[in-house]
Amino acid sequence: MEKKQLIGTNSLDYNPKRNFGGLPFKGFTFKKTMDLCRMLDYIYFKIRRKSHPFFSNTFFDLGLNKVRMFHFFNSVAITNKPWVVTFENEIPRPYLKSSYLVKRLTNKSCKKIIAFCDRARTIETYLLNNYPDLKDQILEKLIVLQPGQPLHIQSIAEKDYSQPVTFTFVGVDFFRKGGMEMLKATQKLIAEGLNFKLNIVSQLKKGEWKDEHITSADIENAKAIIQKYNNVIRHYFSLPSSEIMELFKQSHVGLLPSYGETYGYVVLEAQACGCAVITPNMPPFQEFNDNAFGWLIDVPLKERNGTLDSDLSGENLQLFQTALYNGLYVAMKEAIENKTLLKEKARLALEHIKNDHSPEKKAAILEQIYKDALR
């Protein structure tokens, strides 16, 4: 068997694994390499208790790593070796603070810039208007390649639809991901006498993004609702990934009624387990969820960085929350009352994962990019 070629990367954490490090490559494998900028960022963090914006988004190794090329996630490289980068929001991060890093993207050693969704490409294109002399050179290298996702079941025949419809919500940042609106919709459905179950995997905590309005009283209220309806709601503080997949396999509908995400891997994971998923209609959800194989909730949006985002300012927060709650109630009720429709959505969700997120297809595209870069 021919030996696989090594590709260096400065991280093999969750995001890199989802987008390239965990794909089934035939001719390449990944090695975590030394990164002097990561070392400097670690020292800076120990002193200042925060990451340095340049060190945390840059790779530099003095040429010491014995690999022929690199693939990074969100990092810009200072190297003469070929490299590609996958990014989730904008590249470099934070964007406007380093024109030097923007210019590195035009360097001949940078072979490809990969947005992991159309939303990211749109934001990057919009922000490149600040660099008109560099924009075209960077856009020539820019492509979109969404994450791969293996199927966890092969057919919805593996699902049990004789049981009450089961919904599953997974998210550490409970409130930003629409957890409170979900609980309010659940209360209304219970009051109407509908028979269903709800799994919640969450630490029920306030996040650092889009959660400024959340108070300790909100957290206690969520806990009280879960406790009151513990015959319907089963709460897990956290679970290993393998057990979350088992939970989705036993469920019928996934829930991610989020205020905003850069992506939403859990949607793909739920779909790969034969679940139709309920999300808002904001970017990037409509790229991998659809009313044909899930539910998209109409919520009020505003333009930001060339794309659409939730508007949570002032009285718009309540408008957004109300739309999210109403949409959840309608979609959850339809799933409970119309199992024929639910089964068809689940079947199409599996087909969507098989056709649009095949890990083998994603790996083949990247293999060709690597081969071209090494010529």
Structure write-up:
This protein is α/β, with parallel strands linked by helices and 375 residues long. It has 12 helices and 16 strands. The chain folds into 2 domains: 5-148 and 358-373; 156-356, Glycogen Phosphorylase B (Rossmann fold, 3-Layer(aba) Sandwich), CATH 3.40.50.2000. The chain has helices spanning 14-21, 36-48, 99-104, 118-127, 132-139, 179-191, 216-228, 241-249, 265-272, 316-337, 339-356, 359-373; strands at 5-9, 28-32, 58-59, 69-73, 76-77, 83-87, 110-115, 142-144, 165-170, 196-201, 233-236, 253-255, 276-280, 294-297, 301-304, 307-310. Strands 2-1-4-6-7-8 form a 6-stranded parallel beta sheet. Helix 7 (216-228) links the parallel strand 10 (196-201) and strand 11 (233-236). Helix 6 (179-191) packs parallel to helix 7 (216-228) and helix 6 (179-191) packs across helix 10. The radius of gyration is 22 Å and the shape is globular.
The biggest sheet amounts to: 6 strands, parallel
So, CATH architecture of the largest domain? Answer: 3-Layer(aba) Sandwich
Number of strands: 16
- How many domains comprise the coordinates? 2
Based on CA atoms alone, the radius of gyration comes out at 22 Å
- State which percent range the strand residues make up: 15-25%
The quaternary structure here is single chain
- Quickly give the structural class: alpha/beta
Features:
six-stranded parallel β-sheet, alpha/beta, single chain, 38% helix, 12 helices, Rossmann fold, globular, 375 residues
Structure summary:
This protein has helices at 14-21, 36-48, 99-104, 118-127, 132-139, 179-191, 216-228, 241-249, 265-272, 316-337, 339-356, 359-373, and strands spanning 5-9, 28-32, 58-59, 69-73, 76-77, 83-87, 110-115, 142-144, 165-170, 196-201, 233-236, 253-255, 276-280, 294-297, 301-304, 307-310. With 375 residues, the chain is of the alpha/beta class.
